[in-house]
Amino acid sequence: MIIITVVAIIVLIFGLVVFRGAPYLPSHASEVEAAFTNLYPLTPGDMLIDVGSGDGIILRLAAKHGARATGYEINPILVGVSWLLSRGNRLIRTELADFWRKELPPEVTIVYAFSISRDTSSLMKKLQQESDRLAKPLTLMTYGASLEHKKAVKKRRGHHLYLFTPLQEEKA
Ligand SMILES: C[S@@+](CC[C@H](N)C(=O)[O-])C[C@H]1O[C@@H](n2cnc3c(N)ncnc32)[C@H](O)[C@@H]1O
């Protein structure tokens, strides 16, 4: 009975996530590695945010390039897994958080999102808002679903790269 209850809770936690974003499915590591090398060569000067960081694979790949990497993950089980797999790596942080409710840190340079088509408009709005608020350009790398209403500056297989620049404040 206890096992059934535990399994039901785990299934529920993984299932409920779909109301807030993409369900758990890890990016293909070799594809990401190629994207971090050729599409957007990550450097130690970068600070990457992974929107829904799952088991933290993106964070660990980013850290291999010397970049700082923070993951926001809504599923507490995956936050634990990510923490365990990334422990000891000072470049990596994993936060139990709903991305839509987070303000990005001022040091962010690139946001990574393996999302679903349903969320691409909200993602685009969020990136523009954050670029405006921080008054700095932000790069978004998507995997899987691409943005419908914005032109990618570069792409490679399943990865697309977008640039968000702060909108000029209208003069009164
Ligand atoms: C498709 S997986 C991507 C995992 C990882 N980024 C990768 O590329 O391998 C999406 C992840 O986002 C998480 N997620 C969904 N909605 C979220 C939200 N609103 N805030 C934070 N994490 C979310 C899910 O729990 C899942 O782990």
Give a verbal description of the structure:
With 172 residues, this protein is of the alpha/beta class. The protein has one domain: 3-Layer(aba) Sandwich (Rossmann fold). The chain contains five helices and seven strands. The chain has a seven-stranded mixed beta sheet. Helix 4 links the parallel strand 2 and strand 3. Helix 2 crosses helix 3. The chain is globular. S-adenosylmethionine binds next to helix 3 and strand 2. The site of S-adenosylmethionine (SAM) has 23 residues, from helix 3 and strand 2.
How do the strands and helices of this protein lay out in sequence?
Layout: H1 2-16, H2 29-39, E1 47-51, H3 57-64, E2 68-73, H4 76-86, E3 92-96, E4 110-115, H5 120-134, E5 138-144, E6 154-156, E7 159-164
Parallel strand pairs: 1-2, 1-4, 2-3, 4-5
Antiparallel strand pairs: 5-7, 6-7
Helix pairs in contact: 2-3
The structure holds S-adenosylmethionine.
Number of domains: 1
Sequence stretches where pLDDT stays below 50 over 5 or more residues: none
Tell me the major beta sheet: 7 strands, mixed
Mean pLDDT: 94
Count of discrete alpha- or pi-helical segments spanning 4 or more residues: 5
**Computed structural class:** alpha/beta
Strand order of the largest sheet: 3-2-1-4-5-7-6
Give the SSE order as H and E letters. Answer: HHEHEHEEHEEE
CATH class: Alpha Beta
CATH third-tier fold name: Rossmann fold
Rg over C-alpha atoms, rounded to the nearest angstrom: 16 Å
- Total number of β-strand segments? 7
CATH architecture: 3-Layer(aba) Sandwich
List the ions, cofactors and other small molecules found in this model. S-adenosylmethionine
Q: How much β-strand is present in the residues?
A: 15-25%
CATH superfamily, by name, is Vaccinia Virus protein VP39
Shape: globular
Helix content: 25-40%
